[in-house]
Write a structure and sequence with these properties.
heterodimer, A: alpha/beta, Rossmann fold, globular, B: alpha/beta, 7 strands
């Protein structure tokens, strides 16, 4: 599985197209047969990850998640819990992912596996 | 001697990485805690971090508002893990009565205190926060805090040997090399 992270408008979808996937292979439903799950961040607004969901995500070819948690801590408890959950879920998925790619200004930076100059 | 700054967003795994790094540097470990335990949510975060550190031989010192006393404490040598700059900055900036300290003086003071702390121990690992990449707050006080945390991270990063950003539990070295 390839985990693709990045902020709003960082080039995540274009990167997925570049991998050879078309729109009909991309959706936000973990139970569908589409190989690409787009929008893990919004999916986690409505549910917490259980074993079933983690298994479904791990079985996808690509999981795309907006990177959150890099700004001010939201004033509402629900917002705080959500961004914490998104971060923890990405950390969990990154452990088993074959590749983790982080989009920066449209440029894919492969952070797993990464160059030997990194930690 | 290692002076390291570890930054990352919420839930990025920066604490776990910083702890591993501190543990790899010395068996004698001091944890400098900055979170004030007023709310149930803060207490739950504190409890999670305590569980994470359990059995790893950290002596915990509470220093939510100032590090001045820690830098002249008797525990010298070994490794100090300071967590985190966001809490420290918020506590230093905002008083209990709702008033705000002068940001520029506070920035200078915190920088001085962290540097003194780093010089006091053999090794120091400081946990910072990425707080400037998610929209602009309508509240001037929050903007002041974001600015303070960002500038403090920049100043420390300029002096420290190692700067690491953690995302999804993956460490990315921004400056230096991990020993």
């Amino acid at each position: 599985m390839i985990l693709v992270l990045g902020g709003i408008a960082s080039g995540k979808r274009a990167y997925v197209y570049g991998l050879g996937y078309a729109d009909k292979q991309i959706d936000g439903d973990p139970a569908s047969s589409a190989p690409v799950l787009y929008g893990l961040d919004e999916l986690l607004r409505n549910r917490t990850p259980d074993e079933v969901l983690v298994g479904q995500l791990a079985a996808k070819e690509v999981v795309v998640c907006r990177e959150v948690g890099l700004g001010i801590v939201p004033i509402d408890a629900k917002g705080r819990a959500w961004r914490e959950l998104v971060g923890r879920t990405c950390t969990l998925l990154a452990e088993s992912a074959d590749e983790v790619v982080r989009m920066v200004c449209g440029i894919p930076v492969r952070i797993k596996p990464q160059d030997s100059s990194c930690c | 001697m290692m002076k390291a700054l570890v930054v990352g967003g919420s839930g990025s795994g920066k604490s776990a990485f910083a702890e591993d790094l501190a543990c790899s540097l010395s068996p004698t470990r001091t944890y400098l805690a900055t979170m004030e335990s007023a709310s149930p949510e803060a207490q739950s975060r504190i409890a999670r971090h305590r569980r994470q550190r359990q059995g790893r031989g950290f002596t915990t010192i509470e220093c939510p508002r100032s590090l001045a006393m820690q830098a002249c404490a008797t525990e010298t040598g070994s490794v100090a893990l300071l967590e985190d700059l966001g809490n420290l900055a918020a506590n230093a900036l905002f008083a209990y009565d709702g008033s705000m300290a002068d940001p520029s003086t506070t920035l200078d003071r915190l920088e001085r205190e962290v540097i003194a702390l780093a010089d006091h121990y053999d090794h120091v690992v400081v946990v910072g926060n990425e707080v400037g990449s998610e929209g602009i707050s309508p509240y001037p006080a929050t903007l002041t805090w974001i600015q303070l945390v960002g500038e403090l991270c920049c100043r420390l990063a300029a002096r420290f040997d190692l700067v690491v950003e953690v995302t999804a539990g993956i460490p990315l070295v921004v400056k230096g090399t991990r020993a």
